Amino acid sequence: MQAIETDVYPSRVGGQPRRLERCDPILYGGVDDGPLSAQQLADYERDGFLILPNFLPPAQLDACLAELEKVRHDDALKQRDEAIVEPESNDLRSLFAVHRLSEMFASVAADPRIAPMAQQLLGSEVYIHQSRVNFKPGFRGQGFYWHSDFETWHVEDGLPRMRTVSCSILLTQNQTWNGPLLLAPGSHRRYISCAGSTPKNNFKNSLKKQEIGVPDDDSLTAMVDEGGIIPATGPAGTVVLFECNTMHGSASNISPLPRSNLFFVYNSIQNPLDDPYSGQPPRPEYIAARRHVEPIGSNPLTMPLE
Amino acid sequence: MQAIETDVYPSRVGGQPRRLERCDPILYGGVDDGPLSAQQLADYERDGFLILPNFLPPAQLDACLAELEKVRHDDALKQRDEAIVEPESNDLRSLFAVHRLSEMFASVAADPRIAPMAQQLLGSEVYIHQSRVNFKPGFRGQGFYWHSDFETWHVEDGLPRMRTVSCSILLTQNQTWNGPLLLAPGSHRRYISCAGSTPKNNFKNSLKKQEIGVPDDDSLTAMVDEGGIIPATGPAGTVVLFECNTMHGSASNISPLPRSNLFFVYNSIQNPLDDPYSGQPPRPEYIAARRHVEPIGSNPLTMPLE
Fold first, then answer.
1. How does pLDDT run across A95-133, given as a tens digit for each residue?
2. CB-neighbour burial class of residue B275 (10 A; exposed 0-12, middle 13-18, buried 19+)
3. Per the domain annotation, does B227 fall within a domain?
4. I want to staple A267 with a disulfide (CB 3.0 to 4.6 A). Which of A164, A189, B166, B196 is the partner?
5. Model confidence at B306, in pLDDT bands (50, 70, 90)?
6. Which of A176, A218, A248, A257 is the mutation pick for testing B, counting most B CBs within 10 A?
7. Minimal Cα distance from A142: which residue of B?
8. Count of beta carbons in the 10 Å neighbourhood of residue B252
9. In B13-105, where do the E strands start and end?
10. How far apart, in whole angstroms, are the C-alpha atoms of residue B30 and residue B33?
11. Domain range holding A226?
12. Rounded CA gap, A231 and A249, in Å?
């Protein structure tokens, strides 16, 4: 357990919550390394995210929406481990590893306008650490509490350092009032080390409701005092890039408008998974890629997970 | 039960949900009857609400906040029927009839800048049908589902017609992301007749979570298609006037910022309570004034409730 002894981002190790300084760069590439402008890179470095309204061309958005409907009503997919369904209605809430289950979504993950932004931000070739589609229903859509994805990926998956970026493609319109992603600007500059420890097989519950790895009230208050909160609003086709340690969450959605998004996590090939820092067995491959780490562009992405 | 047979606003009478036309005026007074301008009256008539940012002078806001803190920590008040407390923490969530429990809040209800707006909108003298303070905590503040107050007040309290206006005084800042009041513009022009029937002593649960008198998904979808949703945002001291049949709700609040407001419902003295249209016994006097209906300005408001 060498990794744990030298862990620069300890969390859930039984102590009090703490706000630690980030030990990693935020930007790994420069303006010559990809399509993002100097201003966009500076915004990302300052805030920890970038919102790109209307990024997807209408035809690509329509193709995504058609694929989304296909996936949502595919009963065979709902039987798979990758599918998270609502206990009461059996409606699909999330489907993981969509870049391996759908050729169409695989093509979006490797899109020549999208993947190069991740390569630029991370300054290297990238692979898909995790992907999924999320369905957040209207009327009675549940929220999701504040968290840093990096905290979970570090503790439960062994993601060593902060060199990872998430790309959320909004497939429905996101208003302030239908439960949009809420982002805390500047929160990526600190690491909130959480209290508690990680139960065995925590992911089976945490994918529905996260109760472990939850930041404490004082740290959240300090964070919002410093940077406020920005709702990631925009029309369908908007792309949100956010750094792996940017604190985010969402409130409930009582509006009639559902929210769906396509979510790709790009990790630098120079930041492959280690053993989980919790000391527990790794989560399944469809939640955190450990063996299927082909760089984007080098191979067709879709392949069986065995 | 003559009232029920001739009820123009039937609801919870066992049938299917329906959208009925409103049978009452929206505006009862004109521009010469009070402080609201012709434009403000037109906005209220069209949308069903008016948002007046920074309405309270700073000194009055400070006095309200001081009284709020006093009320929140008054253990004797928490023992009263008027107090709704969180089951787990025993924190005060709402306190009803605050204009009878607090001289300071009584003076706000009768404020010469506030009460005349209600008199103007309702075209008559007014009395307080209901009042309360609401505390909505940060981090884990629950939302409240869509409802028309008139629907509940009609069915459970016997409020005969739509000649009532609510005044919400925001005592903390309301952002789009800390669970603000969500209003559906234009929704006051139709009455959503709800399915189901009213259980006995429904108010004991409905004040915490409304499950009866809830509009159906199709009606809500039509409503939002027509008019959208507006979050009632603004700094502390903002006043929101909304018509008794305007559909409203709120999402959860995961932000660190709590929300508190002071809520006065003004009813026209020409629209006194009848027997509840549910056929059940009336709710308590502190939820719906039936005997204590002195017009604002005619007497000191604060008096014992027996």
1. 999 999 999 999 999 999 999 999 999 999 999 999 999
2. middle
3. yes
4. A164
5. very low
6. A176
7. B252
8. 23
9. 18-21, 49-52, 83-85, 92-96
10. 5
11. 31-268
12. 10
The answer to whether B248 and B183 have CB atoms below 8 angstroms apart is yes
**pTM of the predicted structure, to 2 decimals:** 0.91
**Is residue B89 assigned to a domain?**
yes
Question: Nearest CB to A253: which of B224, B251, B255?
Answer: B251
Q: Parallel, antiparallel, or unpaired: how do β-strands A144-147 and A83-85 relate?
A: unpaired
pLDDT in tens, B177-206: 999 999 999 999 999 999 888 877 777 666
Split into its structural domains, chain A has a count of: 1
Give me the pLDDT at residue B89, please: 80
Asked whether residue A299 is domain-assigned, the answer is no
CATH number at residue A149: 2.60.120.620
Token pair in block for residue B83: 């107090």
- Which helix (H) or strand (E) is B18 found in, with range? strand B18-21
CB burial of residue A86 (10 Å; 0-12, 13-18, 19+) = middle
Q: Round to whole Å and give the CA distance between B10 and B191.
A: 9
Residue listed under structure tokens 């060498």: A2
- In chain B, residues with a C-beta closer than 8 Å to the C-beta of A224 are 255-257
Chain B nearest-CA distance from A211, in A, is: 12
| Dist CA A191 CA A301 (whole Å) | 32
- Of the candidates A179, A220, A256, the beta carbon closest to that of B224 is on A256
Of B250, B251, B256, the CB nearest to A179: B251
pLDDT bucket at A4, cuts 50 / 70 / 90:
low
pLDDT of residue B301: 47
**Cβ–Cβ contacts within 10 Å for residue B213, how many?**
23
Q: Give A127 to chain B, closest Cα distance, Å.
A: 32
In a domain, A78, yes or no: yes
Binned at pLDDT 50, 70 and 90, residue A224 comes out as: very high
